[in-house]
Every structure is written in structure tokens, then in C-alpha cells.
């Protein structure tokens, strides 16, 4: 585990040098072993870090400066290429360690299946847990072409872990008919197409609860974030995603961690996807990790 100053790769802007003193820890999960369309999200974490160097350290949204939050970028988990099962186990062990040390974990993906071991780790640590899922895709399949370890399955797995009534999905605009039927019949909350306004209505019902937030960058319209493996037309703007992040920051929920996944830099030569992702991470650090 890379919890020391030996990591020599790029780090998120203004990352502090000490893991021990940090309140929040950023970690990368460079895996895209199960993607069904375009690979490349394993390169997302480092490109998000590189893009962060162009950010202002001050956020006018949160009225805070990054120097006010003590966070540490631990680098990427060295996941074994092609071995999805072992990679997921390693992520779970890694997050277990972060939680045992009292850190607020911020994961950078990588494909969305990586959220599954994080859900398991969080559920071991926290009672009364709920998940906020912001995504273009339902991710409610039980398997994809016979593979139960697939980036199209993590939210269905989450429903089995904590109960569908504790899973809240927003921005969904793609999936099998059966996935939407499952959402309707199981008791989970699914808001199609939009994020910020339906989220603001739900947040008061989650007051006082332990809530983990997972964001797939493809919730954004491809005009805002073309650099992702499974782009879906008809998405939200980056402003709406920022509104959602601010609404969560202003809520009375207990945010226990977050991830942002599916940035695939090769499909966006303009770099707007990783630039946008890095700004979202800045707001998460300032608004969620520092509460």
C-alpha cells in the first residue's frame, strides 16, 4: 500500500506530504478489465491529477481554499492487469485500511465495477448506510454476457448488499428494460434524466444517515465529457453536476466517502473531460471531506 512519501508519480494539486496527518486520502484504481465497449479508463486517475494542476486552489462555489483541507494523494493501487477478482479484493483491502485509519476516501477510477469493493468495505464500517449513485447507466444487471464481474453490475450488487430501498440513482438514461423494471419493483429510488433537482428533494429524507456517493463521469452529456468509455447522449451539464455536489455539501447527511469513475482520456484530445473531473474532485474535497 502506498501510504507514504515514496510515491513519485503525479499528485492532485496541493496534496499534503503526510498520510498520517491527512483527513482525506485520494487514491487511484487503474482498472478497465471488464468494460463492454471502449477501454482506457485505467489511465483516468493520473490524467485527472495532471489536469488538476490547471485549477485555481480557491473554489467560489464552496468559498474555500484547498489549503484549508489536509488531504493526501496516495497514488494508484498497483492492480494486477487482467485479473478482475484479485483487483477488487485489493481495492477492498485498501479501503479497509483507509477507514481503519479514520480517513475520508476519495477514489479515482477506472471502471465502475471498482465501486463494488468500496461498497463492501463501507458497509463493514458503517451502519445505516445509503448510496447515492450519479450515472447515465442503471448498472443493475446481474451479469453481462455471462460475467458477473462487469462494470454494468455494481448497483445491482449494492442493492443485494444494503437493500434496494437504500440505493438512490440519479441521471439514469440507459439500461435494459429489465433494469428499469427492477428499479421500479424493488423499492430503490431511480430518477431518470435529471440529477440536481430530484436529488435536492431526496436529501432531507437521508438526514443523519451514512451516505456514500459514486459518480460516473458519463452522467454528463458527451458534449461536456466525451472522454469516457460508454458515452450516452442526452446527459446533464457540468453546471448541474456542480449543483448536485453543492447540494450534498449543504445537506445534513453524513458523507462517508466518494468516488469518480470512467474517465477515459484517449477519447478526448481536448482534455475537457479530465479537466471537468478534476474540478469535481476539488469541490468534493472542499465540500464533502471538510465537514
From TrEMBL:
Record pathway: Amine and polyamine biosynthesis; putrescine biosynthesis via agmatine pathway; putrescine from agmatine: step 1/1
Matches recorded under Pfam families: Arginase
GO molecular function: agmatinase activity; metal ion binding
Transmembrane segments: none
Protein name per the record: Agmatinase
EC number(s) stated in the UniProt entry for this protein: 3.5.3.11
PROSITE patterns registered for this protein in UniProt: ARGINASE_1, ARGINASE_2
NCBIfam families: agmatinase
Gene Ontology BP terms: putrescine biosynthetic process from arginine, via agmatine; spermidine biosynthetic process
Family: Belongs to the arginase family. Agmatinase subfamily.
Keywords in alphabetical order: Hydrolase, Manganese, Metal-binding, Polyamine biosynthesis, Putrescine biosynthesis, Spermidine biosynthesis
Cofactor note: Binds 2 manganese ions per subunit.
Classification via InterPro entries: Agmatinase-rel, Ureohydrolase, Ureohydrolase_dom_sf, Ureohydrolase_Mn_BS
Species for this entry: Alkalihalophilus pseudofirmus (strain ATCC BAA-2126 / JCM 17055 / OF4)
Residues noted as binding Mn(2+) in the record, renumbered to the chain: 112, 135, 137, 139, 216, 218
Cofactor(s) listed: Mn(2+)
SUPFAM superfamilies membership: Arginase/deacetylase (SSF52768)
